[in-house]
Specification:
Blueprint: H1 2-14, H2 31-45, H3 49-62, H4 90-99
Helix pairs in contact: 1-3, 2-4
């Protein structure tokens, strides 16, 4: 249930952007199922990570839209800003990227 809620939240946030469900169907047909299973695996290990992922998504989308800028590493990056130091879930994103 938690995975479905997260996927729906992310899909709604992406509705105004250029991405959509099935966006990677021709270039990476398994992308959505890989991401879904990765998130599900992490939630099964730690149910509190679902809230961390929602907060991570909120912080990324709050300022200038959902652009993934929160995922950029660096000393002056959004990720290392004092307001974002408590964010969790980066390991889920990194795991999904490695599986892709």
């Amino acid at each position: 249930v938690g995975v479905n809620i997260l996927v729906n939240v992310f899909q709604c946030a992406a509705a105004g952007s250029l991405t959509r469900v099935g966006f990677y169907e021709s270039s990476c047909p398994d992308a959505e199922s890989i991401v879904r299973s990765t998130v599900q695996d992490h939630i099964e290990s730690d149910v509190t990570i679902a809230a961390g992922l929602l907060r991570l998504h909120f912080h990324d989308c709050f300022v200038q839209g959902c652009d993934g800028s929160i995922l950029i590493n660096g000393p002056s990056a959004e990720k290392t800003s004092l307001t974002n130091l408590g964010l969790r879930g980066f390991e889920v994103i990194d795991d999904a990227k490695s599986r892709l």
